[in-house]
Amino acid sequence: MNSLITRPLLLFFGTALIVSLGFRAALVAAIASQSIPLIVLVSVTYFFALFGLGLWIGRRWAEQLPFADVGFRFHLAVFLAHFTAVLLWYVPALPQSSDNLVEVLIGEGFAWSIALVIHFGAFLWNRRRTIGGLDRDELFE
Amino acid sequence: MPVAATIDELLDAWEATYKKGQLTLWVFLALDESRKYAGEIKAFVETQTAGAMTCELQSLYRVLRKYQHVGVVDFELQAGQRGPDRKYYALTPLGRRLLVEFTRRNIGLFFSNRIHHQIKKLIA
Predict the structure, then answer these.
(1) Quick check: B21 and A140 CB within 8 A?
(2) Whether complex ipTM tops 0.90
(3) CA B77/CA B80 separation, integer angstroms
(4) Contact across the interface for A132 and B70, Cβ inside 8 Å
(5) What is the H or E stretch that residue A62 is in?
(6) For the whole prediction, is pTM greater than 0.90?
(7) Which residues of chain B have a CB within 8 Å of the CB of A133?
(8) How far apart are alpha carbons A43 and A84 in whole angstroms?
(9) Partner A contacted by B65 (CB < 8 A)
(10) What are the tens digits of pLDDT across the range A66-117?
(11) How far apart are CA A99 and CA A90, in angstroms?
């Protein structure tokens, strides 16, 4: 397996996809109940669940190989998992809910895409200090 | 006014700095001698440095994975005498070239007539 798509990253993506589908179901239920605190709670829980999951898998991965650019890879993986979950959630209901899907994609995707592009810029910048994704200052001990 | 530091304190401080970055050289020297499994590399490092350099097996595996990732070390599995297969590590052609270049540029300096003679006088 190449160094870009590794087993921990795939594990993270798969788990994040399941969590994202769970979040979508919980969010729909929370919106249906029209409870703002519940909607906030579901969203915050989703954020911390993914953050914690990324941190845990990322640390275990770093014990194997301490990639310096692991943050962007996880960010991209969670972005893809989130929007794959959106598509899996809404596409079966197409075409009835197609407007809804577009709204969700634009509403959730726009700001996040900008953040991802900025993160990608930082990733490319930091990559100059790496060899094969490993920090060149920490490669030889 | 100079601070009264002991020779041991100063030596410890200097050696701690000096040893940083040395593990790679010793691991590469171990593998240049012959392919080895991790336990043999650890024994080589500790024996050849008279205990001045030590490394935990876990740390050793971590650095070997990094070296393998950048293509300077590779391993092949070979049946152990008892128990699971062992990973026998060896330098790749790139790793061997890296060791030669590094040694020539950094270690070779100690073998110039003037410095070699000076070092021999120091340790005589």
Answers:
(1) yes
(2) no
(3) 9
(4) yes
(5) helix A36-64
(6) no
(7) 69
(8) 17
(9) yes
(10) 888 788 889 999 999 999 988 888 777 655 555 566 777 787 788 889 999 9
(11) 10
